[in-house]
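Sequence in, structure out.
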Amino acid sequence: MKTAVLIVAAGRGARAGGDLPKQYRTICGEPVLTRTLKSFLCREDIDEILVAIHQDDVALFESATAILSEKVSSVFGGETRTGSVHAGLKELAKTKPDIVLIHDAARPFVSDQVIDGVIAKLAEYDSALPGIPVTDALKTADGAPVDRAYLYRAQTPQGFKFDKILAAFDDLSPDDSFADDIEVARNAGLSIGFSQGDEANFKLTHAQDFKRAEKDLRMINVTGSGYDVHKVTEGDHLWLCGVKIPAEYTLEGHSDADVGLHALTDALLGAISAGDIGDHFPPSDPQWKGAASYTFLEHARNLITAHEGVIYHVDVTLICEAPKIKPHREAMRTRVAEILDISVNRVSVKATTTEGLGFTGRREGIAAQAIANVRIPDV
């Protein structure tokens, strides 16, 4: 299968400010367009890359691509995004790709996972786009609620069966203008699939977006680990990773003894070198007697936010003979994601046994270990 990428870079980007069109402004010393192109040039499954540029930007384009592969070429775009994409598609028709990925030049942080997701969906659909489900409450201008169950924030690259999207653009009138290319596909009756988007794949639109991009590029990845153990005692339920599980026993502890959340709290605190859970919530302090462990995790989350950090991924392993974790795993992942205010696809919960060995094998206690990956500013 031959795959082409069409980068839309003919706009003026006036809302972003600055002396240059935003796709040629630099982030940490490198043009935005250069960074965007590198995201695709490193992939062996991309056969050619075409950039739709403004006719006044030839010198800027040549400067931004001087060190890049010969796989990159250009074509002059039109007066609108729709016109620029149509011009690019007609140029790509000369090499007849099977699929085309159309991407905003001003999205320089697109990941391999996002690109893979779009390409995979094209095995089932005529077109595909990465989307992020809307989580905020939505209202109309008069305050009426809007059902967000089927609403997504659309991103690029948007992928298409090449012949079908070219035909869809060919059928447009010269004055037609669409916000994005999926609208053209929908207008033509093409099937549309959604893949997983990524918050990091944001579009540079306003001046503050460039500040965010500079900050993101100066972030470093840090890792913290946590480990906790609680003794099994008499009871009728226990808490694991924020989920209440009926059982003929419980876990002993000063709080609700959620061993999974305790280990994860320590992992997050360790990532920012902020001590351990006992430093922040001493078991000798009566105010934490019977406390819900999600408050400890929220505290660690808030400390990371105060450090201008971002929780990137967490992984919890529960070590026990019982209860069975698999029936509760998705509920645990969902609950941890809610507490940390991150996407559930960034939360891993799994379990193992010790094959009957040791205190967990004898069902005398439950252990948990956790790893947290966090991005913080490099200071």
